[in-house]
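Quick one, T. Sequence first:
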Amino acid sequence: MIIHPTRTNLLLLKEKSKSISNSISILKARRQALIQEFLNTTVPFLRSREDIRKTYGKALDEMALSLGHEGKSGIESITFAVERDMRVDIIEKSIWGLKYKDIVVNKNPVRETDQRGYDFRSTTPHLEEGIYLFERVLESMLEIAAFENKLKRLADEITRITRKIKVLEERVLIEVRYQIKTITQYIGERDRESYYRLKKFKSSD
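Structure tokens:
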């Protein structure tokens, strides 16, 4: 785009350059804040995944031990007794202006033994521990679902801002500064020519 080399346009370009630089600084500050939030969220996310892996392994071990005592049919009948609906609400939250979905569980997945709907006095500690651990797994999986959505939104936004900063720094700002340099040189040469013409004119007098 060709801009007429006038002092007015030069001033406008300098203001534009300043505005772009300010926008880049704001975007970088926002990106840094989002990166910090991403890192803060990653820690509990990774911990939850590790907790699930360990808890799930222990739950399988306990259920395997209880299988020898209660038998397959006994465990299956208890499975029907403990079955329930897990209702969750999806709500929208915001951090640094970025909106993301969060999960709110209406009821705690982990129940007390006497709240499971069967006579726990007739079961073994292995079965009770197994059920408890599986409920813990469910609780952690719901937490991970919330973490994953938040992390994805943060990662997408950080990527978007990084691309925008790159365009502003490597294309827009460079072009504006080039135009400023070109017009400045043109005006400087024009002023020098005017000065020499005026000096020559005075000398001829």
